[in-house]
């Protein structure tokens, strides 16, 4: 079976994790500190990095550290993993959805501009599948309205925008290192930003609100959660990070080959390559109905032939939780079409050329021979 994703874990990763497990300190400690420095160096721009036990925690802490809460509106794309909107609800603010582009799956500045109200405090652009959002106009808009721009780069470690790595701008940017991401710490996430006060505050928020004085005595002056990453995960990340450039190069190679070898067919919308894309996922839209099938049947058809396809993602505003905010079908046509038609093809560094060819052949068979080939 060819899965749609698979982490690349070698002997070095296993040895690094084993070393930590055999040491005296297995939770947050020296390895986390080391990975924070290594990530900051990798991103560039003089930013600081703080690690978390998930990308979700990093986003939540970033919102809290900017005092986003009840009465505030936060603009988010209707097409993302649900964590992007859930963190807004978690801090007591209101998520305001906007539609995305059908091909890039990213929000555009026009959609954001139309959604701004006097209550808007922040916008969370999501670099979908590793493709950078067009950030310059969003920053300009945010400046005009005094909005926080919090980038959800959960899928975008290694992505570049205008020749610089996402995360190096100094604005708060959150990453995820969940096992399906381009590098992993098992579960884990990070916040990168250049404001020392924000970095200090998220340090407290990620661990019970605790501050220590010079004698090591603790004090708590604001709420904090339990969002710290164990050293076991950080040790894994320290081996993964130096491999990221190679991982992403292989991802790009595979993505370009998909773009070359997949059929051009009216039922199939392919993604585009752009400079700096880190190709976290290769997502297409397939109008299964137009070939007389449902999406579920297409997924089964591939599964029976040894290929796993993913769905990233249903449109968030149609989940029961978000319908309670008044959203319904027809609000965001592109997000809804993607939600109904999206399929994620296998893409990970250890996918072989032969396996990829098999996936492409199946698409030709399905679309050109009606699956009967
Ligand atoms: C766009 C987006 N935001 C946030 C997250 C949350 O990251 P994590 O799973 O590390 O909490 C993910 C994870 O898939 C994601 O894809």
Question: How would you sum up this structure in a few lines?
Answer:
The chain is of the alpha/beta class and 373 residues long.
SSE blueprint and pairings:
Elements: H1 11-22, H2 30-43, E1 48-52, H3 55-65, E2 73-77, H4 83-90, E3 94-98, H5 109-115, E4 120-123, H6 135-145, E5 148-149, E6 151-152, E7 160-161, E8 164-165, E9 173-176, E10 189-193, H7 196-205, E11 210-212, E12 218-220, H8 231-240, H9 244-261, E13 268-269, E14 282-286, H10 295-304, H11 320-323, H12 333-341, E15 342-345, H13 353-368
Parallel strand pairs: 2-3, 2-4, 4-5, 6-9
Antiparallel strand pairs: 1-10, 7-8, 9-10, 11-12, 13-14, 14-15
Helix pairs in contact: 1-8, 2-8, 3-4, 3-7
Describe the structure.
With 373 residues, the protein is α/β, with parallel strands linked by helices. The protein has two domains: 11-243, Aspartate Aminotransferase, domain 2, CATH 3.40.640.10; 245-368, Aspartate Aminotransferase, domain 1 (Alpha-Beta Complex). The chain is 38% helix and 14% strand. The longest helix is centred in the C-terminal third of the chain and has 18 residues, at 244-261. It starts with 10 loop residues before the first helix and ends in a 5-residue tail after the last helix. The model has no long low-confidence stretch (mean pLDDT 97). Pyridoxal-5'-phosphate binds at residues 54-56, 80-81, 83-84, 126, 152, 154-155, 176, 178, 189.
What compounds are bound to the protein?
pyridoxal-5'-phosphate
* Quaternary structure type: single chain
Compute the number of helices: 13
What percentage of amino acids are in beta strands? 5-15%
User: Cα-atom Rg, whole angstroms?
Assistant: 21 Å
What's the N-to-C terminus distance? 20 Å
What name goes with the CATH superfamily of the largest domain? Answer: Type I PLP-dependent aspartate aminotransferase-like (Major domain)
Mean pLDDT: 97
Name the strands of the widest sheet in spatial order: 1-10-9-6
Q: Please name the CATH topology of the largest domain.
A: Aspartate Aminotransferase, domain 2
> SSE string, helix = H, strand = E?
HHEHEHEHEHEEEEEEHEEHHEEHHHEH
Largest sheet: 4 strands, mixed
Number of domains: 2
The best one-word shape is globular
- Using the coordinates above, name the CATH class of the largest domain: Alpha Beta
The SS-based structural class is alpha/beta
Q: Which architecture of the largest domain does the CATH hierarchy give at level 2?
A: 3-Layer(aba) Sandwich
Name the poorly predicted regions.
none
Q: What is the helix content?
A: 25-40%
The count of strands amounts to 15
